[in-house]
Fold this sequence. Notes:
This protein has about 325 residues and is α+β, with helices and mostly antiparallel strands.
Amino acid sequence: MSLRLVQGLRCPCCGGPVPVEEGRTLTRCGGCETSLVVEGMEGHPRYFVPNGIQSSEAHEILARWWRKWGHAADLRRRAVLEEAFLVYLPFWRVQSKIMGWVFGQEKQRTKNGTRYVNREKEILMRGDLTLPACAIQEFGVRSVCLVGDEIRPLDLEALEREGMVFQPVFPADQAVRDAEAMMEHQVEQRHKLEKVSYKNVQTVAQRVCLIYYPLWVMRYRYGGRTYQVMIDGEGRKVLYGRAPGNDLYRAGLLVGCMALGNFVLTTVGAFIFSVGGRGGGEVLAFLALGCMGMMYWGFHQYRNGGEVLTDEAAPQDWTEILQGFKL
């Protein structure tokens, strides 16, 4: 089995090349026999995920995304691609294990009311988080998934030949603090104790590294406006993008939701009212709330559907952010 080496490093004493095996922190120069300590930025190793698509395939992915349901019907025909280029964005990867115990009381409902039961919860989790290492708000991508990705030792010169490389600005300490705050929130969600009397939870086996991730930036023009789409260079999908909405689709949702909500509210509501019976008022109230919610959703889609947002990289809640956690 061949070992992967980090190339492009030079000895500070003689200037000769020093290939380093991945993961090693101690090595020796082959020319002057000087012992060397290998460190990445701030003492953390640096890696990159190789780009897996070329410009032509990125154009095909964008064209398929243009045809997505809910986008303007003539988007593919009228959209004009202005620029497309590859960028490597830096992310801090924080891998940790969380171990400990939480003692407290769990709330339980009984026929006679509510009671509290003493519980002890064992916490044993692991996390694999990615956090931006620089300001990348303009790209819309706040995290990346590294599960199953090929990760190689950093070759900065090779990346710069392929595309634009962004340098890290935020220190690793800040990423670690953010990751620990997320983990603490996940611990609170896991034990679900109403009253905590004692908690001893520790983070162990923490590993931090810097990873450069490939993303294709695609900017196009439609109807006098410029839109941007971010394509995952490894996962071959759109992570983030904006597109003009389909006016006919928006109007159809509004009319359909209003018509269906009024029909259910009047027809089904009248039937429930005529039948009467015990609990009929509560059922009618829930039906009215459901119909009003459906009509509001249709209006919301019409009101805000002028621009469609695809945001597959942005987590919707803490659970998705911490999808690497497992008991």
